[in-house]
Amino acid sequence: MSPFVNRKIVVDEPLLKVGCTLGEGPLYDPVTATLHFVDIIERKVHHFNTVDFTLTTDLYNVPITSIVLRRDAPGLAATTARGFALLDPDGSVEYLAQPLPEEHVPFTRFNDGTCDVRGRYIAGTVYSPEHGIPGKLYMYDPDNQICTTVDEGPFTDSNGLGFSPDEKILYFTDSFRNIIFMYDYDVQHGKLSNRRNFIEAKELGYSGFCDGMCVDADGGVWSARWGDSRVCRFTSSGAVDLEIVFPRVLKVTSCCFGGPGNDQLYVTSAHCGANNVEENGLQSTYPDSGHLFVVNLAGLPLKTLQDNTMATFSSTPIVIDGKGHLLGRLASIISKQILSGQKIVVVRCEEINISGSFFRNKLRYHNFLHKRHIVNPKKSGPFHHRAPSKILYRAIRGMTPHKSPRGAAALERLKLFEGVPPPYDRKKRMVVPEALRVLRLKPGRKYCTVKRLSHEVGWGYKDVVDRLEEKRKIKAQAFHERKTAAIKLRQKAVVDSSSSFPKLAELGY
Predict the structure, then answer these.
(1) Is this model's pTM higher than 0.85 or not?
(2) Which of 116, 151, 211, 216 is catalytic?
């Protein structure tokens, strides 16, 4: 049942008179209480501090069409006209993928986008009927750094995207067809299927077009209406139960939730002449077009609104060297990190330590091995994994609500290995001081390694891992010697050539 009864809210005054040509992509960061949004045509990204009401702006040399928060570093990930990228406040753009064919770039571009809880970035392109280029839907997966086409369309103006609260449905807007589609979404594998119509706005009698959107925790879809001066909330069954009208704005472009209680709706808009200079004359009739608005939803009969920062972009995992860490302390820290959205890789799990004597820990593990389920133990468990990585996984899982969707998604962000397999042998590895045995276990206290425990209870790959580790260390030592020699050679070259620098400077070099 809808929490509203055909309710209408009228908003007369803007929050910020920013004057965007094509304001889009609002995104609220609760950590900094900052609302980020873009002006596509002016190639700007605005940052509005909702506490002290200050505005800063970054200018880029390419249009920024959508933005998402990054989980592994400060700043934003984005889609530009050409593809998926990381943004730097100094105006530089680091591309992750540019899937558009070079011959299509002058005639089409990326438009709106969003992330799922795994950090996959999904975005669509706009069509070019003159050149026969259809709009498509793309996905960039930071885990394998691969960009794929997830729906060939054809679409017209790919626009607002949003997930249902359980992430089993992806909503996607095709603006010029005035349709909001819905897909079945497999969040574990990032697969779309069963595209079907959710809303056909023409049949509801609306003028204008569907634009950007967001989704609340009740499953309500909030859709901005380009050319119709409003935001409409659709129930999960497709009925309209709330309209927010902006009488001084013609082209409402997008919306997102934010604020300390996540109960504010931030709304962007575009100048009347955006994409159509013939409509410049309408700006006097709709003088607030292009400004930023906020709608206070506190007190409305809504559940806690969906946290749009849950879906953030993560490009690189943290790699932890398990050697010398205490099992329980490391597991508790990793559990908190993966629940917060961080991707974690642990290598050398066999070198993790367990406090207490080896004999005591072996007795405890043998006691665990003798536990059986009374009915069908092969199907119901418990399953007695003996590998070091599985022992760590079980410890982490025990500290994670793994039966809930949030916990299951968190465990998908975790990778555990014996030894240091490629490509992690070439990546920087870190330790966790709060979990290191030398810092957390009192001197003289007994401990054992997971490798010895696993070997004693039936893990059969100890010798294999030891041989592979020995080969890796020899290879790493040779690499280190070559790198050190190259550094010394470069330093010597700088010293030897320093006497010639003044002469070259005199010649203008």
Answers:
(1) no
(2) 211
